[in-house]
Amino acid sequence: MIFYNKKNKYLTIFLFLLPSVLGLIIFGILPMLGSLTLSFSEWDIISGPPKLIGLDNFINILKGNEFWRVLNNILYYIILYIPLILISSLSLALLLNNKFKGIKIYRTLYYIPVITSWVAGSLIWKIVLNPQFGVLNNLLNFIGLQGPGWLYDQSWAMPGIVLASIWKDVGFFGLILFSGLRGISPTYYEAAEIDGANSWQRFKSITLPLISPTLLFVIIISLINSFQLFPQVMIMTQGGPNGATQVMVERIYKYAFQYYKMGYASAFSWLLFIIVFVVTLLQMKLQKRWVHYES
Amino acid sequence: MNHSKLKRGIIFYSLATLIAIFMLLPFFWMISTSLKNSGAVMTIPIKWIPENPSLDAYIRVFNIFPFARAIFNSVFVAVVTTLITVLSAAMAAYIFAKFEFKGREILFSLYLATLMIPKQVTMIPNFLIIREFGLLNTFTGLMLPSLFNAFATFMLRQNIKTVPNSYIEAAIMEGSSQFKIFKDIVLPLVKPTLATLTVITFMEAWNRYLWPLIVLTDRSKMTLPVGLSLLNGQYGEQYNLLMAGSLISIIPMLLVYIFAQKYFEKGLSVGGIKG
């Protein structure tokens, strides 16, 4: 270990840690405790101090329909989003893993949605998805299909949001999987080729198992992101039509900053934390069944 | 052999182009819509290329909302947030990596524990704290929480650990101050990580929506995402306006991306770990 002059050492530690630790205390630890206290209280921010009401917020949330509807909405999103993002980003990664001229240009293009802000991306998709004047339904029309009402239709609004999310995220996850693919040693493929394995067999027995840790990572991140869905909903649907796209963060935001029910909103946010935590744990447990780590 | 190579090439280019069209079509539609006048936005059949292109929407959007101001705000906030985040994290990371003191491990595990908690949990009390400080509707209030960033601290600590102790010891022998050692020895040796973090933080700060939405209420203070969502709230049906605003908001980031593409790709594949 480095030898320091004692007095100097502690002064350095203090000064260098000061900004970060102050931030940790004021914007990390205190808010955690505050949020926990608030979740057991009733408070409209204007009148008096928060009033402790025990578990009432949690009971009310879990007893009402809204929380379950919101969970249902998110599940609908997840069921559509996860398979689509896995297939599309893995395909993209496999495509990018070829050596063709001009591939860098394609990579640059695929990345533009990723660097577009969610607010701008959602606005664009709101217009692309317009049932009458939008591009998508007109294209569908062109091949003889009658497009749905998308964001105006209770059962098609969430799929519309999913489409926008795939467009925004596929470049990002594609890049992550692409780096995973590049980590696979070519000797495996050479050996398989000598054994006469066809390309599907090579994909199934070499690529898929060796990239499974990266796939797990993509699944965990996209699940966590799914529970934190927000700008898409705020910009494209405001939670409508008829609550069909209400999601947790949107509810938390509206309860806190539009209805000023700080306690109720805090309880909601703790439920979000618990769900995300459990989902991550479950994934970690389940991974043993299918994720292959090279020893 | 040659024949199958040609076939593969054709398949590759047609697939790659198809995907590129899917990715870029919305942008094309954005540009096309932004150049239409209000009447032309809603016509059937749709016009891919506007018949009488006009810059009306752009002029109006700057009149309705202080967009030039919003661009400046966004750039300013993104740059300063990045500086604060990376500098504060690097200073803390240096201590965690190279100094021994009582309670270091406990303190660092507190850092890591905060990584598990979604931002939405601490958002409400953070708002109340900023309000208590009288910093609502200020850039200071918007950026102050960036002092603490567990992910950046963690990444930099891992990297600074690999800096040989002997370099630091030699500098101490020569009588350099700790600040000088940090600035002239430690930071230059972890430059790639600093670059990666800079890109991640900059993009995050540029795109941030929920926190500025809560903190900023004054139109002249708003960043681009908040301004755009305000525009969407008030002129939600005027598609040419919305698209002109979106295009304006995309261009600065696009320019940064084109010039720093290498760092973006690296930064984002690392940043994914954070979620």
Automatic annotation (TrEMBL), chain A:
Residue ranges of the TM segments: 12-33, 74-96, 108-128, 156-178, 210-230, 262-282
Localization: Cell membrane
Keyword tags: Cell membrane, Membrane, Transmembrane, Transmembrane helix, Transport
One Gene Ontology term from the biological process aspect of the record: transmembrane transport
A Pfam family this chain is assigned to: BPD_transp_1
Alphabetized InterPro entries for the sequence: ABC_transporter_permease, MetI-like, MetI-like_sf
Keyword Transport in annotation: yes
Annotated ranges, domain ABC transmembrane type-1: 71-283
Chief location bin: membrane
Membrane topology annotation: Multi-pass membrane protein
Family: Belongs to the binding-protein-dependent transport system permease family.
PANTHER family: ABC TRANSPORTER PERMEASE PROTEIN, INNER MEMBRANE ABC TRANSPORTER PERMEASE PROTEIN YCJO
Entry protein name: Carbohydrate ABC transporter membrane protein 1 (CUT1 family)
TrEMBL record, chain B:
Any one annotated GO CC term: plasma membrane
Membrane topology reported for the UniProt record: Multi-pass membrane protein
PROSITE patterns: ABC_TM1
Similarity field: Belongs to the binding-protein-dependent transport system permease family.
Domain ABC transmembrane type-1 residues, every copy: 71-260
Protein name as annotated: Carbohydrate ABC transporter membrane protein 2 (CUT1 family)
Main location: membrane
Pfam families: BPD_transp_1
Keywords (A to Z) from UniProt: Cell membrane, Membrane, Transmembrane, Transmembrane helix, Transport
BP-aspect Gene Ontology terms: transmembrane transport
Cell location: Cell membrane
Segments passing through the bilayer: 12-31, 70-96, 108-129, 135-156, 239-260
InterPro entries per the UniProt record, alphabetical: MetI-like, MetI-like_sf
Domain of life: Bacteria
Source organism per UniProt: Halanaerobium saccharolyticum
